[in-house]
């Protein structure tokens, strides 16, 4: 038995004909950057997220970075960020020139704990950057309530959560702006790099439009010092084909997750994901916890099952952030999570039979 973590090719093969046709049309168009495909994708993805604006950019990191720039958040500013996240969330803040201020997660959801946010707010705090980790929406009402009281902006890192809902509302529409990634492994993935910003703020959308394209609205008129970070026509065209499949693919993930939870709940020492009543996650990753994670991972490997760790080193302990001198023990909940989490195979193209095999191996292991 050989079970891979995620088969990226399978999603392409399912829609092979449409992708081939899209590519042919793309070549024929003779227009490769900032054209009709991108415009159409932006309209469709904005509508999918139930927001007024979507701006396609180069990748997820740029999406978050440009949001912060557009909000004029930079030097001497602080941004509240989950301690427990992928490092890109932090890097966006650092690249804008601001300081990430980490906050510990809720031990059950792994997302930022709103109760811990207030203690981290200072006179320099400008925004809260919440992450919908593993495809599970963060507790946005509580976060927004704090933000209103302290006059802070709220930014969503929705890179892992395309289509997830919080109290019935789609992520990407729950703060002042949201950043998405279309990195190939994400729930909505391009065949290369890609990203987008969604927002209901027309002024902010306009600024991000400028920032992604050299600060220019009209060619050779540069209003501000912009960047070059645009979602390619080709990737936008592929993403349009894939967006039409997203709900179906997310529904399949949901079925697999329910099966896993059902079969694994009773295993002592193994913690299955917790889903609050208000959350409709999209299961970007299916993450379990076990005190002896490495032994479990090894056992799965011997049985032919791939598993991964998201993420083994929290940002505050990574070499990239040594300047902050956060030692081991600075964020104990985050550190414990990083030592215990294990992501099991999960994708829209894994069959129920395969998941059954994984569950059986785990049941027998204990
Ligand atoms: C993938 C990811 C990003 C960055 O996206 P890229 O497209 O790789 O730049 C940011 N935040 C989170 C939580 C991610 O998972």
Folded structure, characterized:
The protein has 366 residues and is of the alpha/beta class. 39% of the residues lie in helices and 14% in strands. It has 11 helices and 12 strands. The chain has a 7-stranded mixed β-sheet with strand order 1-9-8-5-4-2-3, sandwiched between helices. A 3-stranded antiparallel β-sheet has the order 7-6-10, with no helix packed on it. The chain has a two-stranded antiparallel ribbon with strand order 11-12. Helix 5 links the parallel strand 2 and strand 3 (99-103). Helix 2 packs antiparallel against helix 8 (233-264), helix 4 (60-70) packs parallel to helix 5 (87-95) and helix 4 crosses helix 7. The radius of gyration is 20 Å and the shape is globular. It binds pyridoxal-5'-phosphate. Residues 59-61, 85-86, 88-89, 131, 157, 159-160, 181, 183, 193, 195 line the site of pyridoxal-5'-phosphate.
Enumerate the distinct ligands. pyridoxal-5'-phosphate
Shape verdict: globular
Task: Report on the biggest sheet.
Answer: 7 strands, mixed
In total, the number of strands is 12
* Helical content band: 25-40%
**Series of secondary-structure elements, N-terminal to C-terminal:** HHHEHEHEEHEEEEEHHEEHHEH
Structural class by helix and strand composition = alpha/beta
Strands of the biggest beta sheet: in what spatial order? 1-9-8-5-4-2-3
User: Uncertain runs with pLDDT below 50, 5 residues or more?
Assistant: none
Count of helical regions: 11
Measured by DSSP, the beta-strand proportion falls in 5-15%
């Amino acid at each position: 038995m050989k079970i891979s973590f995620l088969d990226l090719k399978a999603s392409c093969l399912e829609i092979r004909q449409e992708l081939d046709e899209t590519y042919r049309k793309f070549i024929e168009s003779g227009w490769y950057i900032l054209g009709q495909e991108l415009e159409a994708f932006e309209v469709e993805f904005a509508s999918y997220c139930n927001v007024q604006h979507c701006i396609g950019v180069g990748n997820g990191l740029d999406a978050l970075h440009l949001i912060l720039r557009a909000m004029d958040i930079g030097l001497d500013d602080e941004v509240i960020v989950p301690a427990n996240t992928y490092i890109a969330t932090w890097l966006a803040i650092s690249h804008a020139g601001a300081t990430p201020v980490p906050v510990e997660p809720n031990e059950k959801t792994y997302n930022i704990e709103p109760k811990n946010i207030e203690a981290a707010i200072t006179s320099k705090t400008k925004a809260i950057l919440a992450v919908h980790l593993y495809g599970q929406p963060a507790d946005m009402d509580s976060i927004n309530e704090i933000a209103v009281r302290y006059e802070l902006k709220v930014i969503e890192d929705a890179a892992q959560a395309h289509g997830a809902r919080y109290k019935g509302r789609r992520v990407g529409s729950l703060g002042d702006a949201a950043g998405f990634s279309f990195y190939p492994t994400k729930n909505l993935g391009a065949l290369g790099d890609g990203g987008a910003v969604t927002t209901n703020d027309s002024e902010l959308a306009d600024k991000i439009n400028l920032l992604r394209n050299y600060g220019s609205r009209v060619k050779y008129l540069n209003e501000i010092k912009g960047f070059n970070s645009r979602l390619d026509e080709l990737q936008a065209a592929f993403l349009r084909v894939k967006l039409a499949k997203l709900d179906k693919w997310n529904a399949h993930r949901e079925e697999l997750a329910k099966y896993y939870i059902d079969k694994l709940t009773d295993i002592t020492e193994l913690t299955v994901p917790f889903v609050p009543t208000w959350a409709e996650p999209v299961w970007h990753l299916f993450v379990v916890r076990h005190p002896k994670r490495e032994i479990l991972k090894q056992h799965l490997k011997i049985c032919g099952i791939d598993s991964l760790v998201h993420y083994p080193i929290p940002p505050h302990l990574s070499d990239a952030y040594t300047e902050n001198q956060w030692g081991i023990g600075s964020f104990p909940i985050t550190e414990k999570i990083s030592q215990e989490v294990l992501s099991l195979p999960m994708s829209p193209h894994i069959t129920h039979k395969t998941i059954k095999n994984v569950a059986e191996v785990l049941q027998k292991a204990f």
